[in-house]
Amino acid sequence: MQASAKKVVVLGTGGTIAGVARDRGDTLGYTAGVIPIRDLLANVAVSADLELVAEQVMQLDSKDMNESAWCAILQRCRFWLAQDDVGALVITHGTDTLEETAFFLDAALPPDKPVVLTCAMRPASALVPDGPQNLADAIVLAKGLGEGGVYVVCAGLVHQACDVQKVHTDRLDAFDSGDPGPWGAIVAGQIRKYGRGHGPKVTIDPDIVERTAPQNWPRVEIVFNHAGADGALIAAMLEPAADSRKVAGIVVAATGNGTVSNGLESALLAAQGRGVRVVRSTRCARGSVTPVPGARVPDSRGLSPVKARIALMLELLGGHWFTSQQ
Ligand code: ASP
Questions:
Q1: pTM higher than 0.85, yes or no?
Q2: Which residues neighbour 127 within 8 Å (Cβ) at sequence distance 6 or greater?
Q3: Going from the N-terminus, what domains does the chain have, and what CATH number goes with each?
Q4: DSSP 11-30
Q5: Is 3's pLDDT higher than 60?
């Protein structure tokens, strides 16, 4: 069967794209994750030869996304991708943590069929919502791509899971792919590829993710370097309350090219000495930490703090990112 003749399955997970405000002019005071995915699809024109299947997986404001929800999404992705007559998946998702879900799925899913996440910055109830166009563009990409991988479509641009980051609080084009730039664009229903091949991904035995209950995943926290950061937070973190999981890893959103204050560095090295894995990313919106000789805390190999946290969790589960197998 041709890829283009196969079904596209659209999984709804919530977000602003499914959000509703009392007043149509209100694009901020709304409730995310209200409108069912079936109703969202009713507003999207798709070519007559395309069979679409809709499934509501959850209705979540993605600020509340967590490891259990990732696993629920992963399980539905695996189910549908295993069907021979399914060519691709589209996932509607909130913008706030979309890049984290995309990065996680990229690591955990087989790379043979496309999975396209999309979203909106205005609720579905807005006078001019952006969701229907984003959803239509995501379906175009899913149907026509013909190669696997996890992508994000927003405001006409296509981003790869490894690069994409939400960079704006309210603009419709809220996403950016940093220095590599977007993978491509959707222009008038056509896919336009800009030339970047597949970016790197975490390698992991996907079964390990499913076999380990999310509540037993290693706990990895993110701390910031900032003026006045003295490492006291690290000391507190290493002495958790009896009922909470021990911290197994710390990502530091360092300043500039991975610098941290003397106090924070001492605390991080002490944590490392106690067996906690520590990784340096940067709080800068663009660029990544370039390793310098003698660095005592490894860098995130280009990942932002939130993605480095996921990579470190997966690595502690048996995957590879910081210990190269790329
Ligand atoms: N808070 C919303 C969410 O992430 C924001 C959005 O979708 O734009 O679900």
A1: yes
A2: 24, 25
A3: 7-198 (3.40.50.1170), 212-323 (3.40.50.40)
A4: EEEESGGG-EESSTT-SSSE
A5: no
pLDDT mean over 79-105: 97
**SS3 at position 61:** coil
Ligand 1 pocket at CB < 6 A: 14-16, 32, 61-63, 94-96, 119, 121
What is the distance in A from the centroid of ligand 1 to the CA of 126? 14
CB count within 10 Å of CB 212 equals 15
Q: Where are the beta strands (DSSP E) in the chain?
A: 7-14, 20-21, 30-31, 52-60, 86-92, 114-118, 149-154, 157-160, 165-166, 175-176, 184-187, 190-193, 219-224, 247-254, 277-282
Residue of 311, 261, 301 whose CA lies nearest to 281: 301
Position 239 scores a pLDDT of: 85
d(CA 306, CA 310): 7
Alpha carbon of 226 to ligand 1 centroid (Å): 27
Residue appearing with tokens 């994750």: 33
Catalytic residues: 16
pLDDT above 60 for 4? no
pLDDT at site 197? 78
**Predicted confidence band of residue 218 (pLDDT cuts 50, 70, 90):** very high
